Amino acid sequence: MKLKSFDHMNCSLAQTLDVIGERWTLLILRDAFFGTKRFEQFQKNLDIARNILTARLNRLVDEGILAKRPIDGGRFEYVLTDKGLDLQPVLLAMTHWGDKYKPNAKGKRLVFVERATGKPIAPMAVHATDGRVLKPRDIKAKPGPGLRS
Amino acid sequence: MKLKSFDHMNCSLAQTLDVIGERWTLLILRDAFFGTKRFEQFQKNLDIARNILTARLNRLVDEGILAKRPIDGGRFEYVLTDKGLDLQPVLLAMTHWGDKYKPNAKGKRLVFVERATGKPIAPMAVHATDGRVLKPRDIKAKPGPGLRS
DNA sequence: GACAACAAGTTGCATGATGCAACTACTCGA
DNA sequence: TCGAGTAGTTGCATCATGCAACTTGTTGTC
After folding, report:
1. pLDDT one-digit tens code per residue, A15-31
2. Nearest-CA residue of chain B relative to A149?
3. ipTM score of the complex?
4. CA B95, CA B124: separation in Å to the nearest integer?
5. Strand partners, A120
6. Rounded (5°) CA angle B66-B71-B73
7. What's the gap in Å between the CA of B70 and the closest CA on chain A?
8. In whole angstroms, what is the distance from residue A100 CA to residue B20 CA?
9. H or E stretch including B78?
10. What is the DSSP string of B36-59?
11. Out of B91, B104, B126, whose CB is closest to A121?
12. Which domains does chain B possess?
C-alpha cells in the first residue's frame, strides 16, 4: 500500500517534509554543504545505495534545491541553489540538537564558524525581531490568512 | 533487507535523524507543540495509522523527547520534555522554509508570535554571537575534538 | 581499434517499513 | 450488563530500501 503523502496538508512543515523527509536526503544535503558535488563522491562518503542516491538527487533537482550541471566528459556535478542554501538553518538546528543530546564524549564533532572572524556561530535558536532569544513557552502560533482553505 | 542505520555515523545531524527521521515523527511533534497530548487526538488530527502512531510515540518516549503520563481511567497523555522542546528551532526552521518555498497563495498558514508582545518572531536564520544574521557563504565548518575517533 | 578505468546510472530481487481494517483489553458511566 | 471511549495489537498487502550485478558513455593509452 502506498505511503500517505503529506502534500495535501495545509501545513508548511508537512510541505517541507514532503520534499526533504525521505531517507538520506538531509545527509546528501549536508554533504552538498560540505562541498561534495559528484555522484560517486556522494555515494562513497555516505555509503548509500546507488539507486537510492540517483532517486534522491533527481528529486532534489526536480525541486530546484540542487542544480545538475554538465561538466567535461559526460559527467555532472550537483550544486546547491539558493533554495537549497536556505535549508542551512534546518541542518544547523538539527546538528545543534544532536550536539547537545547525542554528544560525542570528546566534544563537538564540527564547529561552525564565521569565515571573517573565525568565531563560532551562535546556537540555533528562535529570536524576537529585536534579537532576543525566545523560549518555547514565550511563543505561540496564530492562524494566518493561508490557513483558511 | 534492513534499513541502514545512521547511528554509527560520527555526525550530529545523522544522530538527530536517527531519532527524529522516521516518517510522521516531526508531524507528531508539531502537534505536541500545538498542545495535543492524547493518543486518539494525535491519531485523528494526523490521520495516521494506529500501529505507526504507537511505534512513534514509544520511540519518542524511549528517547526522552516525550513523557508518557498516566491520567485517570487508565489513560495517558504524552507531553514534551525539555529535550523535546529543544526541537523547536528544527520545526520552525522547516516551517519557515516551507512558508517561503511552498507558500499558500493566501499567505502564511501560521504566524508565530511572542506571547508577551504579540509580535511575530524573526525568521529562523543563522546568527553570529553578536546577533548578526549570517549567510551560508559566511559560514564554514571546522573539525572539532569530537571528530577524531 | 581495442582495452581499461572511471562515472553515472539501471535492474531484479529480498527484506523491512508502512498502512489498512479488524480486533483485543481496559475503564467508566448508565 | 452494556455501550462508548481509549490505547493499543494483529495479520496481511503493498511499497521503500538496499544489495550486487549489470549497462552505457567517455577518456586516455597502447
Report:
1. 999 999 999 999 999 99
2. B106
3. 0.94
4. 9
5. A113
6. 135
7. 23
8. 15
9. strand B75-80
10. --SHHHHHHHHT--HHHHHHHHHH
11. B126
12. 12-85 (1.10.10.10), 88-141 (no CATH)
